[in-house]
Each structure stands twice: as C-alpha cells, then as structure tokens.
Write a structure and sequence with these properties.
Strand order of the largest sheet: 1-2-3
Shape: globular
Number of strands: 3
Number of helices: 5
Bound molecules: S-adenosylmethionine
CATH architecture: 3-Layer(aba) Sandwich
Number of domains: 1
CATH topology: Rossmann fold
Structural class: alpha/beta
Largest sheet: 3 strands, parallel
C-alpha cells in the first residue's frame, strides 16, 4: 500500500521494478529513437520522483534513460507524468525543473487522475480511448 507521506522508503519490490524499467528503457530508447520522429513516455502513477533515501523514482529513471541517448535520437521525446496527489506532483515538478534537460524533450507533470488525463489527451478514436482504462503504467 502507498503511504500517505509525500516521499516514503523504497521497498525491495519497487527497487526490482526500477531495475527492470532501467534496463528496458536503456534498450528501447535508442531503438525507438533511431526511426521515430517522436517518442512518448507516459507514467500514469508517477509518484514524487524520489524516495526517502534519495533514490530516483520511475519518472526520473525514465528521464535519465532518455538523457543518456538524447544526442543519438532523430526526433524528440515527450514525457507525461501523471500524479493525482498535489504534494507529490509538486515534488516531482521541482526535481524535473532542476534537472539538466536536453533540447529535444518536452516534459509535463500533470496533477490529475490517470484515467481522466489520458481520456483528455488521447485522440477521439474509440479503440484508442478505451485503452486508457486498460493501460496502467508504472
Ligand atoms: C506506487 S506509487 C508511485 C511509484 C512510482 N511510479 C515509482 O515507481 O517510483 C503510486 C502513485 O500513484 C498515485 N496514484 C494513485 N492513484 C492514481 C490515479 N488514479 N491517478 C494518478 N495517480 C494515482 C499515488 O498517489 C502514488 O503516488
């Protein structure tokens, strides 16, 4: 269960998830970026971007994976981080603001409910819009 505090200690299972995410994106960012004009990464349950011991959360892990390959990408990367709790979204926003950002990226931190935000940003094609309720990201 997610605690009530803005940031909380990193649990072993989350650390494991982050390892998988880190390796997955290290492989996929260069592949997608070599042919796609735009790569989008959406973290629908973003959290505050940091744990109590200073470890990065999933949004910063994704951003760092992109940053390592940014110069090799043909196009740009767009990040959408969705977090419903205002204090956590604000914490993440501050971390992103202070990060060193390559030119070819856009980042939005939305204080919003995942499903509502996704429904608002997805194109008005029923099969795609229905995906919002099926895809629950990291
Ligand atoms: C497990 S934590 C985030 C972990 C983070 N993705 C990571 O791996 O570092 C889940 C987060 O989702 C947020 N959350 C829960 N329900 C949500 C919803 N319907 N829309 C957006 N955020 C939500 C919680 O406030 C919490 O911060």
């Amino acid at each position: 269960m997610t605690p009530r505090k803005t940031v909380w200690p990193l649990e072993p299972h989350t650390r494991g998830k982050h390892e998988v995410l880190r390796h997955y994106l290290a492989a996929w960012f260069p592949i997608l970026g070599s042919f796609a004009g735009r790569v989008a990464f959406i973290d629908g349950f973003a959290g505050p971007g940091q744990y109590e011991g200073g470890e990065p959360g999933s949004p910063l892990i994704a951003f760092e994976a992109f940053r390592k390959h940014a110069s090799k990408l043909k196009g740009e990367a767009a990040f959408l981080f969705i977090e419903e709790k205002a204090d956590r979204a604000e914490h993440l926003r501050r971390l992103i603001e202070s990060a060193d950002k390559p030119k070819n990226c856009k980042i939005e931190v939305a204080t919003a409910d995942f499903e509502k935000k996704m429904t608002a940003v997805l194109p008005p094609v029923p099969i795609i819009r229905e995906t919002a309720s099926l895809v629950r990201l990291v």
